């Protein structure tokens, strides 16, 4: 049985030219997510839904105890544990990244996961990690969501594109001298 080993692409620190997009993207997503959620709670609490961009985008504040599309309702602690795992895995493998595009993609996931995890911690009406995520953006015939959800969904699309293009996140760096 082979022991799991962490891929070593660079041996660099967590802050290096490849990982810089990861940390900057994660921080930007987290800040934008937190600012918009604080605004949404202040401006939309006890208010009826209102049109923001015609009837295309509405502002409608809800608490979501599930995941995207309200999947996993009532499983906030399990979703929180999964978020901790994802955050830890991204940090653990960060120095192994060989692609700035994957770093950006994982930065979107990290920022989104942190944003929604902070909600689950701070918006708890019950036990630890039992809180609801603040959602406030509504499209017609679509579940209500937030900026963290947009970041994670965008990352999923980017990950599919990068995988189709056979751009690897970790591994040996290609020798540029060979072409």
Automatic annotation (TrEMBL):
GO molecular function, one term: aspartic-type endopeptidase activity
GO cellular component entries: membrane
Signal peptide: none
InterPro entries: Peptidase_A8 (IPR001872)
Transmembrane region(s): 77-95, 142-168
Keywords, alphabetical: Cell membrane, Hydrolase, Membrane, Protease, Transmembrane, Transmembrane helix
Biological processes, Gene Ontology terms: proteolysis
Name of the molecule in the record: Unannotated protein
Species for this entry: freshwater metagenome
């Amino acid at each position: 049985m082979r022991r799991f080993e962490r891929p070593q692409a660079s041996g660099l620190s967590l802050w290096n030219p490849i990982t810089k997009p990861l940390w900057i993207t994660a921080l930007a997503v987290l800040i934008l997510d937190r600012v918009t959620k604080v605004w949404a709670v202040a401006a939309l609490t006890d208010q009826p839904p209102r049109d923001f961009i015609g009837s295309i985008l509405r502002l409608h504040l809800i608490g979501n105890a599930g995941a995207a599309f309200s999947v996993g309702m009532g499983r906030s602690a399990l979703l929180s544990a999964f978020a901790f795992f994802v955050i830890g895995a991204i940090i653990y493998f960060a120095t192994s990244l060989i692609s700035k595009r994957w770093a950006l993609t994982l930065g979107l996931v990290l920022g989104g996961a942190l944003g929604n995890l902070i909600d689950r911690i701070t918006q708890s009406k019950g036990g630890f990690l039992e809180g609801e995520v603040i959602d406030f953006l509504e499209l017609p015939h679509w579940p209500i969501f937030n900026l963290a959800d947009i970041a994670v969904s965008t990352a999923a699309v980017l990950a599919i594109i990068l995988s189709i293009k056979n751009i690897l996140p970790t591994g040996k760096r290609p020798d540029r001298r060979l072409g």
